[in-house]
């Protein structure tokens, strides 16, 4: 019996050793022969197959239910996968086995805290003197008890700023404003640049008028003359001559110091027309002063001018100006990164990559998408996805560390941050781009170059046919050389990777992202769903999530999921133009009971008229109503009216922007209103008059029968 056990352990240890050397297949084989479920779980965990690892640990516990190491490993996997009920159960078993260990009690209390069972968590850690206890008390709604707890254990709490912040928040919630004023004043003295401390001080003091409110900040300025926050915050509420005086001083100081984010800092002030007029007057005066006296830094004004051209739709001129700003201060990382983004918007990919490729994967993906380089765009999107995945994987190292070091408040904050990580705007943008590209690749799969060059040989003359054959032979030879070269490079990479794996085995090696392979997926819709799932979980409050979901499921003919997407979309933004189009198309497809409840009518034309009546002054809403009017009614007169409705351009309408007008032009060019080349060209001319700097609206005299969409000529 001892011999069998020894052999099993030897085989398992050999498997672990092979795994560390990167020889995965051999490792799994030896562990299987060793019949050690725990070790098999370790291999699965190293490959980030956490669900499979959990199954292995549960099987291991059937044979050895009181094994502390297996239970600890299982609890780590459960909290990583947010199996909170399972985590609570495992932590209880650890507590039963080791009731004398402090970590056993804290881990068990933590499980109840994460499950929001605060009363039970309080009972478990009643004697635990730490700010974690206070967090549990506060979240359970017992503010007086939380305040008393802070006072009792103040000397033992190391994070004094967190202590003051918590005390100030609780005092304010209890209505004890005089005491909260004292606390927030102390916090301002600790950090005069923290906006939240001033906000807490204002809320506690409740100033009666603008003068009293302004005095809060003049007092802070007298104590901290070098701090910028007490000078900036008053700009958002003072008015009249005082605003002119303060903004003039603020702008001059920023321009003298050459602060790049100066105009970003005051962007929120542009919501008020009166403030905008004052800022405009002052800036124009600065321009005249610069021309005459040359007192201010030039680079900051180039940045502002570049932004103005960007919003006017002329990305090339915006890039030129930003490049000029960058050349005046090549060491400024902010200007460098902004310049790279502007290069990408102007589709200058190589220049942007040379500038600072590490900042700009999202913008780079958007630029490749604009150029129709689907594989390159998808590569950037997958790189972003892997970056977020890596952040999520890195939290695994903190589960044991935080429990051991007792940094529990920070640990809970980390867990909650990781839970919503993919809600970040950069991930959302990358996921949306990837979904759009996969939808396009589903509708228009990439074809081989031979198919792209096919022509009707029967209609060609012998000389033309001979030239074609020669051209095809040259292309074939070129392709063969490229394939051979790619094969050699791939073999070289595989050799290097294998060699590296022997010395560096830290998690599973990711598959290489090859643009050409990414542009030819076996199932584009399944790939799109991988990017959609995180958005549905974490960005359900954004209408674009449900628009993307409907686009995918409509192509998979999943009627219930289509209906689900529409219902969720209606909860977010019932008046969204694209959602309106999908809603009516769905009604045409299936008129069932659930859809009737959703729309209160089954008459598509009537629903479209109601939608138009509610949104008759919006460019995109008129376009959506026109598209559906054209689809629903085949009467030529009505279809002509639909085109006229969608193509109206007037400054009296809302949403007349370069982006929205380009979108309407796209609808016309791709056939949503039938053949309408002349109308599209007329619409393009009208848009050019409104937005002369936008390349998409600039006509090409040499090709009178063509219109420009997204910078490309389309017949």
Automatic annotation (TrEMBL):
<keyword id="KW-0677">Repeat</keyword>
<keyword id="KW-0802">TPR repeat</keyword>
<feature type="region of interest" description="Disordered">
    <location>
        <begin position="462"/>
        <end position="519"/>
    </location>
</feature>
<dbReference type="Pfam" id="PF13181">
    <property type="entry name" value="TPR_8"/>
</dbReference>
<dbReference type="InterPro" id="IPR019734">
    <property type="entry name" value="TPR_rpt"/>
</dbReference>
<feature type="compositionally biased region" description="Basic and acidic residues">
    <location>
        <begin position="477"/>
        <end position="519"/>
    </location>
</feature>
<feature type="repeat" description="TPR">
    <location>
        <begin position="161"/>
        <end position="194"/>
    </location>
</feature>
<feature type="repeat" description="TPR">
    <location>
        <begin position="34"/>
        <end position="67"/>
    </location>
</feature>
<dbReference type="InterPro" id="IPR021183">
    <property type="entry name" value="NatA_aux_su"/>
</dbReference>
<dbReference type="InterPro" id="IPR011990">
    <property type="entry name" value="TPR-like_helical_dom_sf"/>
</dbReference>
<dbReference type="Pfam" id="PF12569">
    <property type="entry name" value="NatA_aux_su"/>
</dbReference>
<protein>
    <submittedName>
        <fullName>NAA15-like protein</fullName>
    </submittedName>
</protein>
């Amino acid at each position: 019996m001892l011999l069998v056990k020894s052999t099993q352990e030897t085989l398992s240890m050999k498997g672990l050793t092979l795994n560390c050397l990167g020889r995965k297949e051999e490792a799994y084989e030896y562990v299987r022969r060793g019949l050690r479920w725990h070790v098999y779980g370790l291999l699965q965990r190293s490959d980030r197959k956490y669900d499979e690892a959990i199954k292995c640990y549960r099987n291991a516990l059937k044979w050895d239910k009181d094994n502390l190491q297996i239970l600890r490993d299982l609890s780590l996997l459960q909290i990583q996968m947010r199996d909170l009920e399972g985590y609570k159960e495992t932590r209880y078993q650890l507590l039963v086995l080791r009731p004398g260990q402090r970590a056993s009690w804290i881990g068990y209390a933590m499980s109840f805290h994460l499950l929001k069972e605060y009363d039970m968590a309080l009972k478990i850690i009643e004697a635990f003197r730490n700010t974690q206890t206070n967090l549990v008390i506060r979240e359970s709604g017992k503010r007086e008890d939380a305040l008393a707890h802070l006072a009792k254990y103040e000397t033992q709490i190391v994070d004094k700023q967190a202590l003051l912040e918590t005390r100030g928040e609780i005092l304010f919630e209890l209505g004890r404003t005089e005491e909260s004023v004292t606390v927030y004043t102390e916090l301002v003295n600790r950090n005069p640049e923290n906006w939240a401390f001033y906000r807490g001080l204002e809320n506690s003091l409740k100033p009666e008028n603008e003068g009293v409110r302004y005095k809060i900040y003049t007092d802070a300025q007298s104590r901290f003359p070098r701090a910028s926050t007490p000078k900036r915050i008053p700009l958002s509420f003072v008015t009249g001559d005082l605003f002119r005086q303060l903004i003039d001083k603020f702008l001059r100081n920023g321009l003298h110091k050459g602060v790049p984010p100066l105009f970003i800092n005051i962007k929120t002030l542009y919501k008020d027309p009166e403030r905008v007029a004052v800022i405009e007057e002052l800036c124009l005066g600065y321009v005249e002063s610069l021309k005459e006296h040359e007192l201010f830094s030039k680079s900051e004004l180039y940045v502002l001018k570049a932004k103005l051209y960007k919003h006017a739709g002329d990305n090339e001129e915006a890039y030129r100006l930003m490049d000029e700003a960058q050349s005046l201060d090549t060491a400024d990382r902010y200007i460098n990164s902004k310049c790279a983004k502007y290069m990408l918007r102007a589709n200058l990919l190589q220049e942007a990559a040379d500038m600072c490729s590490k900042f700009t994967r999202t913008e780079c993906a958007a630029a490749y998408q604009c150029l129709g380089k689907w594989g390159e765009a998808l590569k950037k999107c997958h790189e972003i996805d892997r970056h977020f995945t890596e952040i999520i994987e890195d939290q695994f190292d903190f589960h044991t560390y935080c429990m051991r070091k007792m940094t529990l408040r920070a640990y809970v904050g980390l867990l909650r941050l990781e839970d919503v990580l993919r809600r970040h705007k950069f991930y959302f943008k990358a996921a949306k781009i990837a979904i759009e590209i996969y939808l396009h690749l589903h509708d228009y799969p990439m074809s081989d170059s031979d198919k792209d060059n096919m022509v009707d040989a029967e209609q060609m003359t012998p000389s033309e046919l001979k030239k074609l054959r020669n051209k095809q032979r040259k292309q074939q030879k070129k392709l063969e050389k490229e394939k051979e070269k790619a094969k050699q490079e791939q073999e070289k990479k595989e050799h290097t990777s294998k060699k590296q794996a022997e010395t560096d085995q830290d998690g599973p090696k990711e598959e290489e992202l090859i643009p050409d392979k990414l542009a030819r997926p076996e199932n584009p819709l399944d790939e799109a769903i991988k990017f959609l799932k995180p958005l549905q979980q974490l960005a359900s409050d954004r209408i674009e999530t449900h628009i993307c979901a409907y686009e995918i499921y409509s192509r998979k003919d999943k009627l219930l999921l289509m209906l689900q997407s529409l219902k969720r979309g209606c909860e977010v933004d019932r008046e969204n133009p694209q959602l309106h189009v999908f809603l009516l198309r769905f009604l045409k497809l299936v008129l069932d009971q659930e859809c009737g409840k959703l729309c209160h009518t089954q008459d598509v034309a009537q629903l479209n008229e109601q939608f138009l009546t509610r949104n008759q002054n919006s460019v995109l809403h008129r376009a959506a109503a026109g598209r559906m009017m054209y689809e629903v009614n085949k009467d030529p007169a009505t279809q002509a009216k639909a085109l006229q409705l969608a193509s109206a351009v007037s400054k009296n309408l809302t949403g007349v922007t370069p982006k929205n007008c380009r979108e309407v032009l796209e609808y016309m060019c791709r056939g949503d209103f039938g053949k309408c080349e002349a109308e599209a060209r007329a619409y393009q001319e009208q848009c050019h008059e409104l937005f002369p700097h936008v390349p998409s609206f600039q006509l090409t005299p040499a090709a009178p029968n063509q219109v420009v969409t997204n910078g490309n000529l389309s017949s």
